[in-house]
Design goal:
heterodimer; A: alpha/beta; Glutathione S-transferase Yfyf (Class Pi), Chain A, domain 2; Rossmann fold; 2 domains; 4-stranded parallel β-sheet; 14 helices; 8 strands; 9% strand; globular; B: Fumarate Reductase Iron-sulfur Protein, Chain B, domain 2; 11 helices; binds iron/sulfur cluster
């Protein structure tokens, strides 16, 4: 399997643990991620706030480069482009979709790209998030076959954040309100997955720079939710989510008088550990909240599943019948 | 997809917002149901929820809309878009309002006055290097826009440095000239349209 790979700015440095662990895991799985040569920033959530066409042109340069590179190396059509960052994934797929929906926008973007000798035809790439490729193309079975150090005893809160399944500018690979693919992946690695009702809530994005109070409250809710369900760690698939929950955890503790010490790791790091790679090989040690105490639990006797936190019933339990969640299938 | 309009399209401001949004956001189909505000993580901290803001746009209340912190407090999480029964491109409208607020000179006076400075600093870095250079971005943003808060973020900056999660110098892309030419042409096309 071979994919075009768009790492995005965060994975170059701030989230280098994500990149390192992905490369190590990909090698074990026999998947090749070919980096798009000379890619540029996707624009994050900032560019579009100031200038519309420049934002679309900026993101489109990446699509044009990726499509050209795919054409010159293999014939797969459409070529697939994988982004590990949720925001990059969203921006690239949104631009691809809007260029298709609006011929006028596509004409303007291509007029701009022409100034750099480039051109992009909407739909010539299939843009996917890394988690989608890992669980649906590689598949749980292949992954299970590589697990030689199962993460027994580890209680994990699976955190999806925004953007990977909503709003679905292209295909969706999981439920937008209650996704479960990461849950299943963690179970395949041998970990115990706790219920995490806030799994698709926002980490605050760039709000830490705009209004610290608003951002810290969003982060606090997520940490509290994971702590309520006695998670040993939160596992994430987005560099922004990792940064906010990890680097600002101490600030949350100061602000709210709490004492959270919940490590935040990337799912690829846990895959690597379960495949028997060393913590250093998967970038453990770059996190603010030290993951080692939690990792030391691996292999310890699995604790019985903790019950969901108790709540006072608000009213009598004779309420209206509620829709039932479908029984979750076990891998 | 809703076809009949429930919000008035007659105000000049309403038409301005639609014209500046990349694809049609279907804003006139808003039912004023409030699902967006109820789903919004920043809803309680916004001057007006998205629902209220859309009613204000239809009523032509240009200045109060562009002065409000609502678009700047939108974190682009798309929760509202996912749930909106009318498929309205709410997040895109928020981006449009940010752009219009900057153009109108109101952005720096809203209660979220920091946001445009942050976006602009980010853009400057991407235009100069092709990628975001976090240390440069943080330093310049704080020194220029929030010198007094610089100390508050210092521990996090130091923590990132210590863990080698920050670059000390930018790593520009190779074909920066090509990128600059593309962005410059985009700017010209945009200017020609709004002229
Ligand atoms: S959810 Fe959609 S229809 Fe309902 S108020 Fe918000 S924008 Fe209008
Ligand atoms: S996209 Fe913006 S307006 Fe919509 S729910 Fe998220 S923060 Fe609120």
């Amino acid at each position: 399997m071979r994919y075009g790979y768009y790492p995005g700015c965060s994975l170059e440095r701030n989230a280098s643990a994500y990149h390192t662990s992905l490369m190590a895991v990909a090698e074990r799985l026999g998947v090749e991620f070919a980096e798009v040569d000379d890619w540029n920033c996707c624009g994050a959530t900032e560019f579009i706030a100031v200038n519309r066409l420049r934002a679309y042109a900026l993101a489109s340069r990446n699509l044009a480069l990726a499509a050209d590179q795919a054409r010159s190396t293999n014939g797969a059509d459409p070529a697939q482009l994988v982004a590990p960052c949720s925001a990059c994934f969203l921006n690239l797929s949104k631009v691809d979709r809007y260029l298709e929906d609006s011929p006028a926008l596509a004409a303007d973007v291509n007029a701009a790209l022409a100034a750099g000798g480039l051109h992009y035809e909407a739909g010539s790439l299939r843009i996917r998030h890394l988690l989608d490729v890992i669980v649906n193309d590689v598949g749980y079975e292949q992954i299970a076959a590589r697990v030689n150090s199962p993460l027994r005893g580890m209680r994990i809160a699976p955190y999806y954040g925004c953007l990977i399944v909503r709003p679905g500018f292209r295909e969706r690979f999981d439920d937008p309100e209650y996704p479960t693919s990461l849950d299943k992946l963690m179970r395949v690695l041998g970990a115990q997955v706790v219920d995490f009702p806030l799994k698709t809530h926002c980490c605050g994005g760039h709000m830490t720079q705009i209004s610290r109070d608003v951002a810290l409250e969003l982060i606090r809710r997520l940490l509290k939710n994971a702590a309520d369900y006695q998670a040993d760690m939160i596992v994430t698939l987005c560099p922004m989510c990792q940064l906010n929950l990890d680097a600002f955890q101490e600030s949350v503790n100061e602000q709210f008088g709490t004492n959270y010490r919940i490590p935040i790791l990337f799912f690829t790091q846990l895959m690597g550990l379960a495949f028997g790679l060393s913590p250093a090989a998967v970038g453990i040690g770059k996190e603010f909240i030290d993951a080692r105490p939690a990792l030391a639990k691996i292999g310890a006797a699995a604790e019985p599943a903790a019950p969901a936190p108790k709540r006072k019933p608000r009213r009598s339990d004779q309420g209206l019948p509620l829709p039932q969640m479908p029984e979750e299938e076990q891998p | 997809m809703a076809t009949s309009a429930t919000l008035s399209r007659t105000s000049a401001f309403f038409r301005e917002v639609i014209a500046d949004t990349p694809t049609d956001p279907h804003l006139e189909a808003c039912l004023q149901c409030g699902t967006c505000g109820g789903s919004c993580p920043s809803g309680p901290d916004m001057d007006h929820t998205p629902r209220t803001l859309f009613a204000m746009i239809a009523a032509g209340m240009r200045e109060p809309v562009l002065r409000s912190n609502t678009p700047w407090y939108c974190v682009s999480c798309y929760a509202c878009v996912e749930r909106c029964p009318q498929d309205i491109h709410i997040t895109d409208v928020m981006y449009t309002l940010k752009r219009l607020a900057i153009k109108a000179g109101y952005a720096s006076q809203s209660s979220a006055a920091r946001a445009p400075g942050f976006s602009q600093t980010f853009i400057d870095h991407v235009e100069n290097y092709g990628r975001s250079f976090e240390l440069g971005l943080i330093t310049r943003y704080y020194l220029r826009h929030r010198p007094l808060d610089a100390l508050k973020v210092a521990p996090i900056g130091m923590g990132l440095l210590k863990r080698r999660r920050l670059d000390l110098s930018p790593r520009p892309i190779r074909q920066l000239d090509q990128l600059k030419a593309i962005l410059e042409r985009a700017r010209e096309i945009d200017n020609a349209k709004s002229a």
